[in-house]
């Protein structure tokens, strides 16, 4: 991943919308991984919130968000599993004990890389293909990008709180 310094907020003037959305999304992706740095395996698998999710489960969730929205959603690919972060019995975020933190990070990085390819190959106003997530009236890529950005923004706030509760680390 690239550090924030590579993705500064754009100065005034004309801005390429695709580039702007992609840079913000990469900033969030990078921040997720940086938030995990320095946390022990135990901390990454421990919940500090009443809802019960652990940081590694959030990363697993975001990997599947990428998969759902860009591969299954936009491309209409037949991907399995689509909801792989959910425990089959409870529906809650879940990472099997057999999956290491490195496995989860690798899945996240891989899904992000594939999402970047999808975005780079499509026009912002091209609608998603039907047959995957959408069966009719598929949204344009720009809508999907904005949806994914808001999902990251919400979860980054949650991860900020969890990290502060875990070891007092604040900020990026």
Explain what this protein looks like in three dimensions:
The protein is an all-alpha fold and 172 residues long. It has a single domain, classed as Up-down Bundle (Four Helix Bundle (Hemerythrin (Met), subunit A)). Helix content is 53%, strand content 0%. It has helices at residues 17-36, 41-44, 55-74, 101-120, 141-167. It holds the Pfam family MST.
User: Span between N and C termini?
Assistant: 15 Å
Radius of gyration: 16 Å
What's the tally of helices? 5
Please write the CATH class name.
Mainly Alpha
Largest sheet: none
Please state the structural category: mainly alpha
Q: Which regions contain 5 or more consecutive residues with pLDDT less than 50?
A: 1-7
Question: What's the quick description here?
Answer:
This protein has 172 residues and is mainly α. It contains 5 helices and no strands.
Topology, pairings included?
Blueprint lengths: L16 H20 L4 H4 L10 H20 L26 H20 L20 H27 L5
Question: Which properties best describe this structure?
Answer:
172 residues; 5 helices; globular; disordered N terminus; Four Helix Bundle (Hemerythrin (Met), subunit A); MST-like; mainly alpha; DinB/YfiT-like
């Amino acid at each position: 991943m690239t550090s924030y310094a590579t993705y500064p907020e754009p100065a005034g003037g004309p801005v390429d919308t695709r580039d702007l959305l992609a840079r913000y999304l990469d900033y969030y992706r990078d921040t997720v991984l940086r938030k995990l740095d320095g946390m022990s395996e135990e901390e990454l698998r421990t919940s500090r919130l009443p809802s019960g999710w652990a940081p590694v489960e959030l990363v697993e969730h975001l990997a599947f968000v990428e998969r759902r929205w860009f591969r299954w959603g936009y491309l209409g690919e037949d991907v399995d599993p689509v909801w792989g972060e959910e425990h089959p019995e409870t529906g809650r975020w879940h990472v099997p004990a057999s999956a290491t933190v490195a496995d989860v990070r690798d899945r996240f990085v891989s899904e992000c890389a594939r999402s970047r390819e999808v975005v780079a190959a499509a026009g912002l106003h091209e609608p998603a293909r039907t047959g995957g997530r959408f069966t009719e009236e598929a949204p344009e890529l720009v809508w999907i990008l904005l949806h994914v950005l808001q999902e990251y923004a919400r979860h980054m706030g949650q991860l900020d709180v969890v990290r502060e509760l875990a070891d007092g680390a604040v900020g990026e």
